[in-house]
Amino acid sequence: MRAMVLEKPGRPLQLQEVPVPAPGPEQVLIRVHACGVCRTDLHVLDGELPHPKLPLILGHEIVGTVAAPSAQVSQFKAGDRIGVPWLGHTDGTCRYCRQGRENLCDHPRFTGYTLDGGYAEYTVADQRYSFPLPPSYPDAEAAPLLCAGLIGYRSYRMAQDAGPRLGIYGFGAAAHITIQIAVYQGKQVYAFTRAGDTETQEFARRLGAVWAGSSDEQPPEELDASIIFAPVGALIPAALRASAKGGVVVSGGIHMSDIPSFPYDILWGERVVRSVANLTRADGEEFLALAPQVPVKTEVQTFPLEAANEALEDLRRGRIHGAAVLVVREA
Question: What is the rounded distance in angstroms from the CA atom of residue 146 to the CA atom of residue 62?
Answer without folding.
Answer: 7
